[in-house]
Amino acid sequence: MPKLTVDGIEVEIEPGATVLQACEQAGSEIPRFCYHERLSIAGNCRMCLVEMEKAPKPIASCAMPAADGMNIFTNTALVKKAREGVMEFLLINHPLDCPICDQGGECDLQDQAMAYGGDRTRYAENKRAVEDKYMGPLVATVMTRCIQCTRCVRFITEVAGVTDLGLIGRGEDVEITTYLEQSMRSELSGNVIDLCPVGALTSKPYAFTARSWELNKTESVDVMDAVGSSIRVDSRGREVMRILPRLNEDVNEEWISDKTRFIWDGLRTQRLDTPYVRKDGKLHAATWAEAFAAIADKIKATKPERIGAIAGDLACAESMKALKDLMAALGSPNLDCRQDGAKIGYGPREGYLFNTTIAGIEDADAILLIGTNPRWEASLVNTRIRKRFVRGGVSIGAVGPHVDLTYDVDWLGAGPQTLSEIADGTHAFAKVLRGAKRPMLIVGMGALTREDGAAVLAAAAHIARDMGLAVAASGEQEEGWNGFNVLHTAAARVAGLDLGFMPGPKGRDVAGMIAGAEAGDMDVLYLLGADELPTSDLGKAFVIYQGSHGDQGAHRADVILPGAAYTEKSAIWVNTEGRVQLGERAIFPPGEAREDWTIVRALSDVLGLSLPYKNLTELRSVMRAAAPELGTVDYAPGGDNVSSVTWANIGIPGALSDAPFEYAVKNFYFTNPIARASKTMAECSALCLTGDVKPQAAE
Amino acid sequence: MSVRRMAKEQPENFAFTLENLEVAKQRIAKYPAGKAQSAVIPLMWLAQKQNDGWVSEPAMRYLADLLDMALIRVYEVATFYTMFNLKPVGKFHVQLCGTTPCWLRGADALKNVCDKVIGPKGQTSEDGLFTWSEVECLGACVNAPMVQINDDYFEDLNAKSFEEILSHLRDGRQPKLGSARGRTSSEPEGDPTSLTEPGLYDPAVAAVPVTFTPTPAPESGEK
Question: Hey, which residues does A240 pair with through a beta bridge?
Answer without folding.
Answer: A235
